[in-house]
Amino acid sequence: MSAPQEEYGLGEGPAVKTSVSLRAGNVRAVRERAGARGFSAYVDAAVERQIERDLLEEALQANESEAGPIPQVLRDEAAELFRAIKAAPELQEDAEWPEHEAG
């Protein structure tokens, strides 16, 4: 008998067989990208990324509740940096983040 899933952190623990319903177009797209053998790993990685995004959003909301909203100039600078990285994937590993003065 396997241990309860609650004992494992995000991205940890043994694989557990489960059943989910996905739209046919998404199933086709995953199979084209990952193949039949890589389907579960692809979906597992996508779920992990979504949970990480959810946690990041929660942290950002908590920070804004405590410290106030992020200044628009920093939001604009971050958006521009993300656009540049997305346009040039070779920069993703070596991207330099600009330094900011506390204000």
How would you characterize this protein structure?
The chain is mostly helical. The chain has a domain at 21-91. Helices cover 58% and strands 0% of the residues. The protein has 2 helices and no strands. The chain is extended, with a radius of gyration of 19 Å. The mean pLDDT is 85.
* Strand element count: 0
> What class, by secondary structure content?
mainly alpha
Determine the N-to-C terminus distance: 55 Å
Q: Overall pLDDT, averaged?
A: 85
User: Runs with pLDDT <50, length 5+?
Assistant: none
Q: What's the main sheet like?
A: none
Beta-strand share of residues: under 5%
What is the string of helix and strand elements? HH
Percent helix, as a range, is 55-70%
Keyword list:
mainly alpha; 2 helices; 0% strand; single chain; extended; 103 residues; 58% helix
Secondary structure blueprint with pairings:
Elements: H1 24-67, H2 72-87
Quick summary of this structure?
The protein is mainly alpha-helical and 103 residues long.
